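Pasting as-is:
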Amino acid sequence: MLKQRIITALILAPLVILGIFFLPIPGFIAAVAVITLIGFWEWTQFVSLSERLKAMIIPVVTLIGSLFILPISVPSLMTRFPAHHHMLILGGLWWLLASLLTITYSSSAQYWAKSAALKQLFGLLTLIPFFWAMLLLRADNYLSSHYLGAKLLLLVCLIVWSADSGAYFCGKRFGRTKMAPSVSPNKTIEGLFGGIVLAVIVAWVGAEIMNIPFSSVPHLLFIAIVTVVASVFGDLVESMFKRVSGIKDSGRILPGHGGVLDRIDSLTAALPVFALLYFW
């Protein structure tokens, strides 16, 4: 299993970075749309195991509808219309609620665990803002600084990856206090702090090396810390839905890693939160 995970990661990471930097905007939008739709397909397991195709109708219609409702040209993505900001705010509010649901699990599960409609809504709130955050970050200042948006996306990935690594090693060494034992018994408060420390260092160094503009160093560090916390809850929220549905992995598309949702769960929270704070 570990060998498979390493091989898949060594193949996947360069492909992701190449796609972020070198796909033209239309190709990038198409690629992110495919990832989002795969994520929705895996989410249908949380909604209905017996009627997954039927459960895909609303996500597909919603994603396509958002492309017609929200401006999608490069200039409009760069300008960031009020509708774009509203989408990011919606994502931020959802992750506040989702974090609360995770902290209060399993008592809070009685209000939504048996509702297919609510779980469908939760999937939309998880993946639609993720889709638009990817687009808005990639298009930032695109015409005058072609790779700035790509560097922003890479920075978020580095923050999440370093937070995962820091939390793992610090949690293994010092972990005592469980964050959400009924959802994920391995995550600890000590691990979270270890992840934050490493991610903040990586964010600071990464922003300096890639020359990513922030209004101030405290602004950068604040965004990094909040993004790390959001990424942790992104992971916990998917774990919560898998636990309620009795599912170990969201899919098998990535050998050793499970499904697409298993790989992007942290990013579904980190990207909208980072984008909201960066563009605020």
